[in-house]
Amino acid sequence: MNNSYCTPVSFGFEHRFLPPVYILVFIIGLLANGWGLKSLLQNWKKLGNVNVFVLNLGLADILYLLTLPFLVVYYFMRSKWIFGDAFCKITRFCFNLNLYGSIGFLTCISVYRYLAIVHPMRVMGRITVTRSVGISVMVWLLVSVQSLPDMFFSKTFGNKPGKCYDTTHKIYVEDYLKYSLGWTLTGFCIPFLIILGCYGHVIIFLCRTETTDKVLKQRCLKFLCILILLFSVCYVPYHVFRNFNLWSRVLSRQKKCSEWSNGVFVAHQISRGLVCLNSALNPLVYLHGNEAIPAQLRRRLQQACQMFSRLSPSNLRSVPEAQTEDEAEQELRG
Q: What is the DSSP letter of 219?
């Protein structure tokens, strides 16, 4: 700690980094989730009882994606929020619903997979769509209750257009750090441990059972890889650096300077960009649950490659000079 010199914090970094990330996630996320939800509804009966949780996962993503254009405007205007205090809180609330709702529904999917593979006879006839809907409602309620206290912390601090804090103003940062630590424990750490326990037991069970279908083993390993990707890229860095950044702000408010404050702030902004990627990566769950989607994706890519190959300059030069424009166009269309 050093009271005589404080490393300046690069507040401009978030204005350069976050808008491009939000624009990219908005475009990819809407396309991927829209396509995934459409395929999910078309193959509802084929996907089993976890489809209810996958549907809610997609709805949580779309709810957050619709708020990203407003955040892009906010950061392009150098952190000047012009949409009012109430909508600022709603925007941040939607982010929390998406984040912890996604974690909650991924936990439900993991528990269902665990029960269906390790204890199939005990749960036979007990896992129904009605119960899945009831559990989904409970997840939404629990996440809302966890996120509700965040709404009572100041987000804009003042009537004039200004900041729309993702946490809160520096005056309340000590209390917010305590809330954030408890939130991290209940909303992230406990579900993460449940997921690790479920899939750890599933992997051990599948390795010990020689008669288990190889396809089932592959699907479980694929879904485990998806979870590792989501948590290692999106969820773990965000929760670690959010709390470190809040601690740095607490020290700054106490007139205590830390050499790592700027590095932690930059790392926190990067983690904020990474955590919103979950809305673009969650559709991987659709790919895992529905084998028809990868086939459709490969078919679309093949069609696109064929179209570009037909429209390449080399193919265009090979058209005979005596050929009319209409004939050439028909040939290009195949």
A: H
In this model, does residue 71 exceed pLDDT 60? Answer: yes
> Mean pLDDT, to the nearest integer, of 181-205?
92
Domain positions in the chain: 13-290, 295-334
pTM reported for the whole predicted model: 0.83
Q: What percentage of the chain exceeds 70 in pLDDT?
A: 80
Query: Looking at residue 321, what is its pLDDT?
Result: 43
> For domain 13-290, which architecture applies?
Up-down Bundle (1.20)
- CA-to-CA separations, 291 to 113, 114, 115, 140, 284, in angstroms, rounded: 17, 20, 22, 28, 11
Stretch 7-11: mean pLDDT, rounded? 74
CA angle, 15 then 166 then 247, to 5°: 100
pLDDT at position 262: 87
Token readout for 14 is 């978030």
pLDDT reported for residue 311: 64
For 215, the 3-state DSSP assignment is helix
Alpha-carbon span 87 to 190, nearest angstrom? 30
Query: Helix axis angle, 85-118 relative to 68-76, nearest 10°?
Result: 130
Contact call for residues 172 and 180 (beta carbons, < 8 A): no
In the beta sheet, which residues pair with residue 257? Answer: 2
Most confident of 109-113, 121-125, 205-209: 109-113
In Å, how far are 30, 39, 69, 95, 289 from 292, measured between CA atoms? 20, 8, 32, 30, 9
15 closest CA partner among 215, 273, 289, 254:
273
- What is the Cα–Cα distance from 36 to 45, expressed in whole angstroms? 15
Q: How far apart are CA 283 and CA 40, in angstroms?
A: 11
- Provide φ and ψ at 321, rounded to 5°: -65, -30
